[in-house]
Amino acid sequence: MFGPAEGEPEALRRYGLSKGGFSFKPKKNLAPLQAADMFAWLTYQWLLNECEGKKLNPIAMESFKDFYLHRNKAFLEGGYNKRADLADWVRKKGFVIPPE
Asked: Are 46 and 54 in contact (CB under 8 A)?
């Protein structure tokens, strides 16, 4: 399925694919990567909900609650910044932000 897209000149920009950049090896050998992928997906889903109001997938909601409540809320910490927050931070560092 990815083979034809891999050869396109814009494959890296459009699909994130580079030659030989994917495989279908047995997943039992890639458990840590699967965990990182799942956590990244969950974080992305949560941010879409927070920033764009997209309804959360029920699996994302259940997983987020599990991570958030794990060990008395000590596992999942952090947040996100909106564009205005990032622009303020950059200005505080002494940099000038060019107009869009």
From this structure: no
Q: Can you spell out the DSSP letters for 8-36?
A: STTHHHHH---TT------GGGGHHHHHH
Q: Which positions ≥6 away from 90 have C-beta within 8 Å? A: 97
Nearby residues of 89 by Cβ (< 8 Å), 6 or more positions away = 81
79 occurs within a structural domain: yes
Instruction: Residue 32: give the domain boundaries.
Output: 26-92
DSSP letter at 75 equals S
pLDDT tens, residue by residue, 39-58 = 888 888 888 888 889 998 88
pLDDT for 73-83, tens place per residue? 666 666 667 78
Distances in whole angstroms, Cα of residue 18 to Cα of each of 6, 22, 37, 84: 6, 8, 18, 34
